[in-house]
């Protein structure tokens, strides 16, 4: 029976199934982790979708990976059902029939997922927005020329992980200590130890 899914007629749906599993694993592993694009910006959640994409279920509060996983699942089910009940057709014909069916089915599936999942808000921040925020060194001791990994909570409560060095040559920031991000050079943020009570994040 499994050999059937390795034939050309079922190949697109078999591939879609394994891609769906892969994306699901990535989503599960990365659940709850913040992300930072040091060369651009951070985007969390979703943006408002155009009418057509909104009708297809995109932009209803679902992260794009979950929406895509749902679409791949609908495409796999529609394709296998088509080939089992009315086929087998040539894979190209089967894809042409299964894809619009999957898009319509996913519009309902995405709506259901959006109702049961926690809501997500659209938040876009630039890298510079992390300046004047506090970070906590996670491992090692940060010194000049010896950056250490730190965790920064932005103004929206999202966690980001950056490399930090002290702003002053003779200062260090040990593991577990917090510091204020005061400037950035490339991928490295420079910090002032959080020992001055007059220092406050913006």
How would you describe this protein?
This protein has a five-stranded mixed beta barrel. A two-stranded antiparallel ribbon has the order 1-2. The model is unreliable at 32-53 (pLDDT under 50). The protein has helices spanning 11-29, 51-55, 64-85, 91-116; strands at 41-44, 123-126, 134-139, 148-153, 159-166, 178-185, 188-193. The protein is elongated. It folds into two domains: 2-123, no CATH class; 131-193, OB fold (Dihydrolipoamide Acetyltransferase, E2P). Helix 1 runs antiparallel to helix 3 and helix 3 packs across helix 4. Helices cover 36% and strands 21% of the residues. It is an alpha+beta fold and 202 residues long.
Q: What is the radius of gyration?
A: 24 Å
Low-confidence stretches: 32-53
User: Total number of helical segments?
Assistant: 4
The biggest beta sheet reads: 5 strands, mixed, barrel
Total number of domains: 2
Subunit organisation of the chains = single chain
Structural class assignment: alpha+beta
Q: Per DSSP, what share of the residues sits in E-state strands of 2 or more residues?
A: 15-25%
Q: How many E-type strands?
A: 7
Q: Could you give the order of the helices and strands?
A: HEHHHEEEEEE
Mean pLDDT: 77
What share of residues is helical?
25-40%
The coarse silhouette is: elongated
Our measurement of the CA-to-CA distance between the termini, rounded to an integer number of angstroms, reads 62 Å
Protein name: DUF1449 family protein
Keywords: Membrane, Transmembrane, Transmembrane helix
Pfam families: YqiJ_N, YqiJ_OB
Organism: Sphingomonas immobilis
């Amino acid at each position: 029976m499994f050999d059937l899914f390795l034939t050309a007629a079922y190949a697109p749906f078999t591939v879609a199934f394994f891609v769906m599993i892969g994306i699901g694993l990535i989503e599960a592993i990365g659940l709850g982790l913040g992300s930072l694009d040091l060369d651009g910006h951070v985007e969390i959640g979703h943006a408002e979708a155009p009418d057509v994409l909104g009708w297809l279920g995109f932009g209803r509060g679902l992260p794009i990976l979950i929406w895509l996983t749902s679409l791949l699942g609908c495409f796999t089910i529609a394709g296998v059902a088509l080939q089992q009940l009315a086929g087998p057709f040539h894979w190209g014909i089967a894809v042409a029939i299964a894809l619009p069916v999957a898009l319509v089915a996913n519009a309902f599936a995405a709506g259901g997922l959006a109702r049961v999942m926690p809501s997500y808000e659209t938040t876009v921040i630039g890298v510079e927005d992390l300046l004047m925020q506090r970070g906590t060194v996670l491992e090692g001791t940060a010194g000049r020329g010896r950056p250490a990994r730190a965790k920064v909570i932005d103004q929206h409560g999202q966690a980001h992980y950056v490399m930090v060095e002290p702003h002053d040559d003779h200062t260090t920031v040990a593991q577990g200590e917090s510091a204020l991000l005061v400037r950035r050079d490339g991928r490295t943020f420079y910090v002032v130890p959080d020992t001055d009570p007059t220092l406050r994040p913006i």
